[in-house]
Design a protein that fits this description.
Blueprint: E1 8-9, E2 33-37, H1 57-64, E3 83-87, H2 89-93, H3 98-108, H4 113-124, E4 130-134, E5 137-142, E6 145-160, E7 166-174, E8 184-188, E9 200-205, H5 209-212, E10 221-224, H6 229-238
Antiparallel strand pairs: 1-2, 2-6, 3-4, 3-10, 4-5, 5-6, 6-7, 7-8, 8-9, 9-10
Length: 239
Amino acid sequence: MKKDLIKSIVAFSLLGTMLAGCQEKVDTPVKNTSSDSESTESTEHSHNHSHVHSHDDEKKQEIYSGIFQDDEVEDRELSDWEGDWQSLYPFLLDGILDEVLHKKVETNKDKTFEEYKDYYKVGYETDIERIVIKDNTITFYKNGEGKTGEYKYHGYKILTYESGNRGVRYLFDLVEEVNGVPKHVQFSDHSIYPTKSEHYHIYFGGEEHDTLLNELENWPTYYPSNLSGKEIVEEMNAH
């Protein structure tokens, strides 16, 4: 795929890290450089998902932490996020994630438990309790009702933060307008090449991608729907 790289400035400052070390490192304004690869048709690129990346454990951790080079980033298909996903927001409100919060307090000592709780209430907040991704479609569930749209790949954006670390958001566009379905969707899951996602942060709405890239405080986060609250806590504490 032909890659057209562009540069933009996005302001924000880092307020904290995600639970168990996972969060979009975008909160309040500082300098951020962004470049992207754009595609108008998902059929213009193909991925062999059996492709093996020869990264050792240390390199994988660096990528997870946002340390990588531009030429290491690859296009991805929507199938990387295929599955049935549940929002973390209800688990946070119910107190199920309190164990994770307490661990963050003990480990980082940069916020109180109450401060962490408030921070993630803003970060995880969403009324979309479930997302199902299959083939080229995404179904968003609100109050038990699902609405489905077909999406095509739009490319990726590389965001560079003041700390020097970076993140990648993968962009998708709605093919045909459907009432109640977002026109644009962005995924961030700490990976930079084709791989099955284990969890992700998502940004979506009717705004254009450049506007969504400026969303710095709210990053709804999803884990597989077949996991119990206890299993999610174990997954998060394992990082």
